[in-house]
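Researcher: Go.
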Amino acid sequence: MKKGIELSLNFLVTIIIALVIFGFGVRFIYTLAAQAIDLESITTDELDNKIGQLLCESTDRVCIGMDKKTIQKGKFDVFGIKVININRGSDFEMLISPTGHIKNNGPIMPVDPGKIKIKYRQNFFIDRNGEESLGVGVEVSKDAKSGMYILDVDIKQITSTGAEPYAGLHKLYVEVP
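Model: Structure:
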């Protein structure tokens, strides 16, 4: 009789330990899935809110807070761009495109399609003497090559005669280790 109670007690302890370990495993997977954010699920308004205040000179018409960031493969980060309109209120257009990839200070190579995903608000309106802070989300694919990726930022002001360049071409640099 005593051996039967010991066996039942050992069985109950084993079941309890197994349930606790299973619970921790479920919690770990749930936490991991809840923290997984990809660029597709973020709205452009959320990107704009993520950048916060940028430190800019008052004379800069286009200001990029940090133009160089290190982003791990399979991850994303946000760049901040502030545009100040010194002309009358008008629409603006921002185009960002990957222009090159440099590996080990070698020559500039073309960027393989799909290796760098960029999300941003392309068209926006700014009143006279107003400003707009914009977020630019950059996601690096898991199979991207290591090196420095160069992104061209071209902001144009829409006028009655068409789109005119506004404050020249700017660059963003993404370091992929």
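Model: DSSP finds two helices and ten strands in the chain.
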